[in-house]
């Protein structure tokens, strides 16, 4: 009954973002009466049996799909990726030490600024040009400090639509990556990283849980003179359950990852996502007099695709008319302007096809 009344549109938003329909439908079923317990999954105790199984399954799915090696901890935390901007240096950046940061966008810059509230942090590269970021640096352009305690990058820059495809080589210095808008769209070699973190609200589920994947030697090296609730070692020891976990967000992540597995895991996601991005970039490139992609080709993100139209007025019209055609979430970030299309895992290839048709029609009408 509810289904017949429901009208879902195509949501290209950057996060919170579209979710796989089967993951939502499963939540709808589990919401009033979880597996015959008579209460919803959101009402179960974080220490009870029903939730414990969900917690373990979510963690197990992450380990399996991302092929996380045994010597890494998987932590579920709160506070979002920005929380990690602070919690990471609190744990790993001690007095008389320095951390390296590569500045490739707004979030990467905020991560550096937050680290400087804790200790010493150095800018190892910065690709800002005239207030915008249109590429990520090559490894040769990055001035790594061989004595840094860690080296931080944002692997996908959600606002400016740039992405690292090859991870930089930091030698013995542990590479730490904000993968908020990059995680789980393709396989990555986790062993290349000391730590990976991501807010869940893009490829993993809904806001409320932040995933931290961190090598055990870094966990045990963590500072002990910080509040216990922020210590990676304490969270690992308590299986991310020393206080009330964001149970519903973790439950949703379980549903989303189960769907990813059903689709064939990350190799299947990669194929699907690369095809979607190619379709969209082709639509931009085929019409260079009307659509302009500011990002350099080698840095073009597969997850967040940004482009401009000839005027801001046309951009506003594009967004409004797209919405009339059931396509929402297309307005660029307020600091960057233009159009941004986020193509996370749950976006169906068919939806990109419909957006591309709309783009072609709009250009021939307005161009
Ligand atoms: N890093 C990146 C790459 C992001 O895209 C975002 C949010 N869009 C953040 C950090 C901030 O995340 P949160 O809101 O979870 O703190």
Give an account of the 3D structure.
This protein has helices at residues 2-5, 21-32, 49-65, 80-92, 106-116, 216-221, 232-237, 247-262, 265-285, 312-324, 349-366, and strands at residues 10-11, 72-77, 98-103, 120-126, 128-129, 132-133, 151-154, 156-157, 162-163, 175-178, 195-199, 210-215, 304-307, 327-328, 339-342. With 367 residues, the protein is α/β, with parallel strands linked by helices. The chain has 2 domains: 28-262, 3-Layer(aba) Sandwich (Aspartate Aminotransferase, domain 2), CATH 3.40.640; 265-366, Aspartate Aminotransferase, domain 1 (Alpha-Beta Complex). It has a 7-stranded mixed β-sheet with strand order 2-12-11-10-7-3-4, with helices on both faces. Strands 1-14 form a two-stranded parallel ribbon. Helix 9 runs parallel beside helix 11 (349-366). The longest helix has 21 residues, at 265-285. 46% of the residues are buried. The model has no long low-confidence stretch (mean pLDDT 97). Bound molecules: 4'-deoxy-4'-aminopyridoxal-5'-phosphate (PMP). 4'-deoxy-4'-aminopyridoxal-5'-phosphate is lined by residues 15, 80-82, 107, 154, 158, 178, 180-181, 199.
Outline the secondary-structure elements.
Elements: H1 2-5, E1 10-11, H2 21-32, H3 49-65, E2 72-77, H4 80-92, E3 98-103, H5 106-116, E4 120-126, E5 128-129, E6 132-133, E7 151-154, E8 156-157, E9 162-163, E10 175-178, E11 195-199, E12 210-215, H6 216-221, H7 232-237, H8 247-262, H9 265-285, E13 304-307, H10 312-324, E14 327-328, E15 339-342, H11 349-366
Parallel strand pairs: 1-14, 3-4, 3-7, 7-10, 10-11
Antiparallel strand pairs: 2-12, 5-6, 8-9, 11-12, 13-15
The structure holds 4'-deoxy-4'-aminopyridoxal-5'-phosphate.
The site of 4'-deoxy-4'-aminopyridoxal-5'-phosphate (PMP) has 11 residues, from helix 4.
């Amino acid at each position: 009954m509810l289904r017949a009344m429901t009208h879902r549109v195509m949501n290209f938003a950057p996060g919170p973002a579209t979710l796989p329909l089967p993951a939502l439908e499963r939540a709808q079923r589990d919401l009033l009466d979880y597996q015959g317990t008579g209460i919803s999954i959101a009402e179960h105790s974080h220490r009870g049996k029903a939730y414990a199984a969900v917690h373990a399954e979510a963690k197990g799915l992450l380990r399996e799909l991302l092929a996380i090696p045994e010597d890494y901890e998987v932590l579920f935390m709160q506070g979002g990726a920005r929380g990690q901007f602070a919690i990471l240096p609190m744990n790993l950046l001690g007095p008389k030490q320095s951390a390296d940061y590569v500045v490739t966008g707004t979030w990467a810059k905020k991560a550096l600024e937050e680290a400087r509230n804790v200790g010493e942090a150095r800018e190892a590269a910065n690709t800002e040009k005239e207030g915008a970021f249109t590429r990520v640096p090559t490894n040769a352009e990055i001035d790594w400090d061989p004595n840094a305690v860690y080296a931080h990058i944002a692997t996908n820059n959600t606002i400016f639509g740039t992405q690292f495809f090859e991870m930089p080589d930091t030698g013995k210095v542990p590479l730490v990556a904000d993968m908020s808008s990059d995680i789980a769209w393709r396989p990555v070699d986790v062993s290349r990283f000391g730590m990976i973190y991501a807010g869940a609200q893009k490829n993993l589920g809904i806001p409320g849980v932040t995933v931290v994947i961190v090598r055990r030697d870094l966990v045990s090296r963590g500072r002990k003179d910080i509040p216990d609730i922020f210590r990676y070692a304490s969270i690992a020891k308590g299986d991310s359950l020393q206080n009330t976990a964001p149970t519903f967000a973790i439950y949703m992540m379980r549903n989303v990852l189960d769907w990813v597995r059903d689709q064939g895991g990350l190799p299947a996601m990669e194929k699907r996502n690369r095809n979607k991005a190619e379709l969209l970039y082709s639509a931009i490139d085929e019409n260079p007099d009307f659509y302009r992609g500011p990002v350099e080709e080698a840095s073009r993100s597969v997850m967040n695709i940004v482009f401009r139209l000839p005027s801001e007025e046309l951009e506003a019209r594009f967004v409004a008319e797209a919405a009339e055609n059931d396509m929402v979430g297309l307005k660029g970030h307020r600091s960057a302007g233009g159009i941004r299309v986020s193509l996370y895992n749950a976006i169906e290839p068919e939806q990109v096809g419909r957006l591309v048709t709309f783009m072609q029609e709009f250009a021939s009408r307005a161009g």
